[in-house]
Specification:
Elements (H helix, E strand, L loop, with lengths): L6 E7 L15 E2 L2 E2 H9 L6 E5 L3 H5 L4 E3 L9 H11 L4 E6 L7 H9 L7 E5 L4 E9 L3 H9 L5 H6 L3 E5 L13 H8 L2
Parallel strand pairs: 1-4, 1-6, 4-5, 7-9
Antiparallel strand pairs: 2-3, 6-8, 7-8
Length: 194
């Protein structure tokens, strides 16, 4: 049986955010609070194992958690590079990944993964009944080598990676707002006007 202690929560904040004028998305303010802090507030009562994947503003991210992990591959190679780098550095057998730009994230997402966990699957991926949400992923540490090989072959597409491996969807029919994310300045302004 999977428990909270078996999982490290990894927040992906390592991107370029080109649609946000290169603003560091994890540090953008939503209702006056850095979005990374809003996400951590939803996690910290249930887990002490929290890491952040970031490639800039490292000292700022270190003020939110004791472990900030930079990509081991250069040139901002996407979420899989961040996932790979975190997998290499965690002590738990599983990593649960969350993008840094999801203001509606809630611990219930992680709980649903735990409740639907199958030990025979190496990767569990969120699905909102319309499409997969693969940056919300529970991945086994056993996937370090396959992920390394995939990245070294020049591939970056997260959907192709999990479909090539032993995966399962975790379906979220009742509430898909967990997966809403902020990609543009306009979306940020909209959230701040609520």
């Amino acid at each position: 049986m999977l428990t909270n202690d078996d999982i490290t929560i990894g927040i992906l904040a390592g991107g370029r955010a080109t649609r946000m004028n290169s603003q560091d998305k994890g540090l953008m303010l939503v209702n006056g609070i850095p979005i990374i802090k809003k996400i951590i507030n939803k996690i910290e009562n249930n887990s002490n194992n929290i890491v952040i994947n970031a490639n800039r503003n490292i000292s700022k991210y270190e003020s939110f958690t004791s472990q900030v992990i930079q990509d081991s591959l250069s040139d901002f190679q996407g979420p899989l590079a961040g996932i790979y780098s975190m997998l290499k550095n965690i002590r738990t057998n599983y990593l649960f990944t969350i993008p840094c730009d999801c203001p509606n994230f809630d611990w219930n997402v992680v709980k649903k993964f735990i409740d639907n966990f199958e030990e025979t699957k190496d990767i569990h991926v969120a699905h909102n009944s319309l499409r997969s949400q693969p940056v919300f992923m529970l991945i086994s540490k056993s996937m370090i080598d396959p992920l390394h090989d995939y990245l070294m072959s020049g591939n970056r597409k997260i959907d192709i990676f999990y479909k090539k491996n032993n995966f399962k969807y975790v379906y979220f029919n009742e509430d898909t707002s967990y997966f809403d994310n902020i990609n543009t300045i306009e979306q940020l302004d909209e959230y701040n006007s609520k």
